[in-house]
What we know:
The structure holds two protein chains of two kinds.
Chain A: H1 2-91, H2 98-124, H3 127-150, E1 154-160, H4 168-189, E2 193-200, E3 204-211, H5 227-237, E4 241-247, E5 251-259
Parallel strand pairs in A: 1-2
Antiparallel strand pairs in A: 2-3, 3-5, 4-5
Helix pairs in contact in A: 1-2, 1-4, 3-4, 4-5
Chain B: H1 2-26, H2 34-37, H3 41-57, H4 64-89, H5 95-118, H6 123-146, H7 157-185, H8 187-219
The complex binds adenosine-5'-triphosphate and magnesium ion.
Amino acid sequence: MYQTTANTIMIFVIVCCVLVLVLVLFIAFIIYKYQQRQNHYFQNMEELKIIYDHAILESRIEMQEQTFQNISREIHDNIGQKLALAQMQLNTITYNTVEKTSDQISSVTAIISKIFDDLRDISRSLSSEIISQNGLIAAIEFELLQINKTANYDFQFNVNGDTSFLKDETELVLLRVIQEALHNVIKHAEASKINITLDYSKEVLKLLVSDNGKGFDCNGINLVGTGIKNIKKRIKLLKGNCVLESNYLTGTQFTILIPISL
Amino acid sequence: MGNFHLIVIAVGTTIIFLSFFFAFAVRGNHTIPAYLNLFYYYPLLILFESVNSILCIYFHLYSGFTENSIEKLLFLFDFIFWALFFLAVFKSKNPVFKKVIYSNFIIFLLIMLVSSFTFRSPYESLGFSNMGKSIFCLLYVYDLFTSEPNINLKKDPVFWIVCGLFFYAASTIPIYLSLSYLYQHYQAVVGFLFPITNITIIIMHLLFIKGFLCIKQQRIPS
Ligand SMILES: Nc1ncnc2c1ncn2[C@@H]1O[C@H](COP(=O)(O)OP(=O)(O)OP(=O)(O)O)[C@@H](O)[C@H]1O
Ligand SMILES: [Mg+2]
């Protein structure tokens, strides 16, 4: 009797030990596999983050280049002209009568104060600052203003829905995308009308840039330039979606969807 | 064997009380998911089950039939409790996965109901319930390996709870399903298998306690 009891307990203990061993192995295996997957995942995240940061930096640099171009054009076309005019007027001051002289001088003063205004505009024209201070919409408006200084387009800029601020970086990339699209319109489309629409809804921001230009074959050939490729790459990084449609009847249309994550 | 069985039961009851205590201690903590706030119902359920057997076997308060019926009902609650737990735990938004979860719940609930009425003893229905729970656990593992791996498993209370449950449920399925048969033909074996199920219950609760200790650890820094 005693013997059998001891035996049973023995078997019992062995069974329990086996079960517990299986349990421990099971838990260890799952934790190990999970951590493997986790490491892999974090590595991927890291890489993605690097790519993302890189893209942001690129956008920033390109935008600065654009701004420098704007500034140099402004200085050359606008301020240079006005300074030349002021110089000419100063050269032609006659000193015959006090009244005439003071008239001439006050006209020069007026020109100089205009130059001051222009300079102030220039210093305000850093797009990235406009974005961080006044948001995407103000930056787009400013962009259109800049374009209209050199070219004459019939712009339509519409904003629908409840506007919400996106992350600074997202807005920056979006502005850069819009700049690139507008740049293409100016460079290639031979259009007269440009339409930009921002559609804010709860979860996505829909952005539309369209022109009424000559269009191009956007599916057939490999695109030579970097503009459109860049746009697609960046929208993908923002986990968005972009569709390019173009034909010679209606012109070109860029539709971009960006998720709004709060 | 008799003394040994008693020891197992005594230790088991203590552990279940402990796990109830821990589950009760963390409730109302806003940093943990809501379903863990209600987890103390679970050890309570098991205590009810023990009390039910004790009242019947040692105090003869009611017949074995009543005891079995109460037991079946408690097992049903137990399964529903776990189903709700898992429904709250799963992260996947995949509609197919959701369908699988719900159908698993409904199918095993039906099987349990049917077996409650066909078998005299409650253990068949518990065996099927454990089968359903094991499938839930496997689905949890699947969910774990398909959703974003952003949790620290070693500190995740749900993981430990599911491990405990899986251990208990999976290892006792064959025992519970064959218990009636064994009882008729190999009575000696039953006296030996029963403590094993108790040991698995004890280990399950130890893992629950481990899970709840994770919550306490999480709470300290906040
Ligand atoms: N709005 C548009 N209207 C007509 N053609 C367009 C328009 N946008 C792009 N294209 C055509 O698509 C081509 C590719 O454009 P993309 O912006 O990628 O390169 P690019 O403008 O030529 O060079 P980059 O942008 O690098 O200076 C252009 O060469 C042009 O022929
Ligand atoms: Mg281009």
